[in-house]
Amino acid sequence: LLRQLYDELTFMSAQLDALTKQVLACVKNDERIQRLLAIEGIGPINASALVAQVGDAKQFRSGRQFAAYLGLVPTQHSSGGKERLGRISKRGNPLLRTLLIHGARAAVNASRKKHDARSLNIQALEARRDTNVTTVAVANKNARIIWALLSKGECYRNSN
């Protein structure tokens, strides 16, 4: 039984390696994916999934609308002139939202060791808010950056 499980694990590992090589080969050939890889927290899997699922980013009017499509914007409970923001809506694409949040978590962790403008901004936000709130805020920011890169065809400039 253990030998059978080991053989199955070895086979699955080989399949995973082969699929990873295929994804990396596709990444090298797509200019849009290459542009997204410049964003911290976006890797080859995230970038290829975003390009494949979103297609033409011009279908969204703004970065906020794109972030809302992914379910990364807070819900609003407004009444009588008071605006209250709640948790994220989670109404969009769960796969892309999960990938962006995991990537943002990596970016938040990496920012603790860096001193560039974006990292300092993340550190300041993390000092004021919970780590999970900071992570979602970074994912939201990354979604807006992704929209700008895909819709305008520009390269990423890390100026925060």
From TrEMBL:
GO terms for biological process: DNA transposition. GO terms for molecular function: DNA binding; transposase activity. It holds the Pfam family Transposase_20. Residues 34-113 form the Transposase IS116/IS110/IS902 C-terminal domain. This is Transposase IS116/IS110/IS902 family protein. It comes from Permianibacter aggregans.
